[in-house]
Amino acid sequence: MDRIEFLKENLTDESIKFYRYLKESKNSDIGEICEEMANKFPELQMHLYGDLKVIEGLALSLAVIEKSSENKRKHFWVGKTIMVIDNDLNSRKFAQKLFTKDYCKLLFAENQSDVINYLYSNKVDLIIMEVLITEVDGFELIKTLKKMNRDIPVIVHSSCNQKNQQDQCFYNGCDDFISKDSSKKEFLEVVDFWAE
Question: Which CATH number is correct for 81-195, 3.50.50.60, 3.90.1300.10, 3.40.50.2300, 3.20.20.140?
Answer without folding.
Answer: 3.40.50.2300
